[in-house]
Amino acid sequence: MDTAIVTEQLAKAYTRRKRKEGFWPGLRAYFSLENEVVSAVSELSFRIERGESVGLIGENGAGKSTTVKMLTGILVPSSGRVETLGIVPHADRRRLSQSIGVVFGQKPQILWDIPARDSFQLLKAMYRVPEDVFRFTYTEAVERLELGDFLDTPVRLLSLGQRMRCDLAASLLHAPAIAFLDEPTIGLDVLVKERVREHLIEMRRRFGTTIVLTTHDLKDISATCERLLVLDRGRLLYDGSRHGFEERYAAGRTLLVTLDATVDESARARLEHDLAGEELELDWSVPRHLRVQLVRSASTPRVTASVLRHLAVVDLAVQGAELDAIVTRLYRNGKAQA
Amino acid sequence: MSALPRPTLRQLVHGFVVLAQKTVQTRLTYRLATLVSLLASVASYGVFLLVWLAIYRENPRPGPLSRDEMLAYLIAAFLVNSLLITSVELRFGHRLRMGLIAGDLLRPLGFLMFQMAQGVGDVLANLVYVLPLFAAGYGFAGSAILPASAAAAALTLLSVALGFLIAFGVSYLIVQAAFVLQSGYGIMFLRASLHQVFSGLSAPLVMFPPTLRGAAECLPFHHEIETPARIWLGLVPLEDAPRLLAWQAAWGVGLIVAGELIFSAVMRRHQIQGG
């Protein structure tokens, strides 16, 4: 497989004026020449092969957007090496732009004052899209993303969701070799998100598009990406398969139990005694509900049997280690502990 | 990894033309607002004309131009200026502050051609208003505002095109300054002031005191407005026109090349606002 993107020890640091809290310190800082260097990304090394679909995730300020900007060539790295489709992006950005598609969430790239249909025609001309490719990408976008009703409405009159759909369609019209999608589903409702994911999958299937997806909606990742790059404060915390990530960071499963009546102390004591040897946490905080957090080594069948034996259960569900839950815990607890 | 294809010149020209067309379409969206701005500009320029007419009443020969020549010149200068006004700086300033230029930097036309195509679109959109203004000017000043000859008219077309290159070149430099300063508004006001005085919009350079005229001749602004207006009206002997056109071309190309060099340097250290 050809390599789409390669980075080695990639870093980006900004210099900015040192700011101080409060009115007078802030005013003094305004006239001061004191600067500070902020490291946005450091020691980033990874390789993405052509046709891969990679989710780039991390907390706000983790360096995701900075990374995407360096990969597309609109930011010059402070140090390290980056190649996208075989060229150094910032050295030959214009040539690269022909073969990539980019969505920056909430920053519309289609023309504001004219209908999306006109912007699509403009992009067709600018990107020199062959007629047969355009016919497919245009039709696929209009149908899959349901753009038909507002194609002739000036973009400034569209809702956020409609605009986002048009922006996504615009970024993929020329069937780019790589699509960099920074929050492409922001502001979309659940059904439209689903259609966006289907559109990405279809574009990838048809054109072998490499997808680099930055999002806070991990369902986007679950639906479209096999591989994850997890950034934490500008550094690569994890690079590997999504499945591997779930294996590595998942703490186990959760048993959600709805009880017939409030549990009396003796039943509770019997259950806790029975489960004394298992690695788990029992949460009784919600009346008539029990939440059992099982650590990896705990036996789900044994714990379930014990719960059913000691308590009057109305309903019981076993929740798997979903990506959302893992990442949420990762962010909340601090990465070192994960 | 395979080498990416380079676009042909024909493909680039096609993209450029379509972007210019779409910019015309965009500019003509706000018809009423544009018309009101134009009327405001006509009104303020009308005051200029009245001031000059008053000066000529007091002193029938304040400089080398007669009253009728001056009137025709001021109208011609106003028309050239109205034609060459673009939104390159304003558009860029807005997009810079909102972090929207990230997308503009990723267009296969390249940043320079992307901006220039929009500038050309602005000029084409201006024609919609400049042609009726020309008719109104004819109604006001009569045949004095018609071209001196067919050759003068043809040379003026070339001169206006080169005037656009200069106007765009200056705007492109301001765009670079805006990149560095993270906002272009202050420098845009400076440019507007310099342009107002030194472009020949308020008066031809021959009416300036010698020192001010010497300063104006060292700057590019008068080649945007004054040179095409003088060629149009025959205030320049035809045999002198090629020399002026060569100056215009040199300024236009020089400003754009300088802008591109600064752009390369700026891109190495700039930041795109917003995540």
Written overview of the protein:
The complex is a heterodimer of chains A (338) and B (275). Helices cover 37% and strands 27% of the residues of chain A. Chain A has helices at 23-31, 64-72, 93-97, 116-126, 131-144, 160-172, 190-207, 218-224, 242-249, 265-274, 300-310, 323-333; strands at residues 3-17, 35-49, 53-57, 79-84, 100-104, 178-182, 210-214, 227-232, 235-241, 254-259, 280-283, 289-294, 313-319. Chain A has a six-stranded mixed beta sheet with strand order 5-6-7-3-8-9, with helices on both faces. In chain A, helix 5 runs antiparallel to helix 7. The radius of gyration of chain A is 25 Å and the shape is globular. Chain B is mostly helical and 275 residues long. Chain B has eleven helices and no strands. Classes of the chains: A alpha/beta (338), B mainly alpha (275). Chains A and B meet through helix 2, helix 3, strand 5 and helix 4 of A and helix 1 and helix 11 of B.
Q: Determine the strand fraction of chain A and express it as a percent band.
A: 25-35%
Measured on Cα atoms, how large is the radius of gyration of chain B? 20 Å
Could you report the average pLDDT of chain A, rounded to the nearest whole number?
87
Low-confidence stretches of chain B: none
Name the overall outline of chain B.
Answer: globular
State the strand order across the main sheet of chain A: 5-6-7-3-8-9
SSE order of chain A, one letter for each helix or strand: EHEEHEHEHHHEHEHEEHEHEEHEH
List keywords for this structure.
heterodimer; A: 338 residues; alpha/beta; 6-stranded mixed beta sheet; 12 helices; 37% helix; globular; B: 275 residues; mainly alpha; 11 helices; 0% strand
What is this structure, in a nutshell?
The complex is a heterodimer of chains A (338) and B (275). Chain A starts with a strand and ends in a 5-residue tail after the last helix.
